[in-house]
């Protein structure tokens, strides 16, 4: 999570659902980069959770909150301006910055050479974004990995 800012908003009711919105958001234009409806299973707690732009870490929490609410009000209306609670966590905090980091950086160990091999005499392959040597940890990496394994399977002699 290093380098990420996770946020949560709570509301008294799911106003976005009543307006026909899913609560899912992906954006390259505002402070919110991605967001999801985070209503609980019992549907008695309502809200959103998601991730903010990494550059927002340099601003105080109140400024981040104001920008989040402004972006959501532009998209969902004035009701978005009235959450019952706002929380966010900047994961690049003092714990990480002081040199005592035990959390691995994102995608640091993806594409390990052992994950590129086949096992069980060519019957088992690993294909996932974590095994990709290009774009690891992203959808593009999953596609690269899948194409590589598909190519390996197609070039193998038939199993008897």
Automatic annotation (TrEMBL):
SUPFAM superfamilies: FAD-linked reductases, C-terminal domain, FAD/NAD(P)-binding domain. Pfam families: Amino_oxidase. InterPro entries: Amino_oxidase (IPR002937), FAD/NAD-bd_sf (IPR036188), Flavin_MAO (IPR050703). Residues 2-151 form the Amine oxidase domain. It comes from the Bacteria. Coiled coil: none annotated. PANTHER family: AMINE OXIDASE, AMINE OXIDASE [FLAVIN-CONTAINING] B. Belongs to the flavin monoamine oxidase family. This is Amine oxidase domain-containing protein. It comes from Parapedobacter defluvii.
């Amino acid at each position: 999570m290093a380098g990420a800012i996770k946020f949560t908003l709570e509301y008294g009711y799911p106003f976005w659902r009543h307006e026909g919105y899913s609560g899912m958001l992906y954006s390259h234009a505002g402070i919110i980069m991605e967001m999801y409806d985070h209503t609980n299973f019992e549907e008695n707690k309502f809200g959103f959770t998601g991730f903010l732009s990494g550059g927002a870490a340099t601003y105080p929490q109140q400024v981040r909150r104001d920008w989040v609410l402004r972006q959501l009000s532009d998209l969902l209306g004035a009701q978005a301006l009235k959450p019952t609670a706002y929380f966010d966590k900047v994961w690049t905090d003092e714990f990480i910055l002081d040199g005592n980091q035990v959390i691995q950086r994102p995608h640091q160990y993806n594409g390990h050479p052992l994950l590129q091999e086949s096992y069980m005499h060519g019957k088992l392959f690993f294909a996932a974004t974590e095994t990709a040597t290009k774009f690891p940890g992203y959808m593009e990496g999953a596609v690269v990995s899948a194409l590589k394994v598909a190519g390996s399977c197609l070039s193998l002699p038939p199993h008897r």
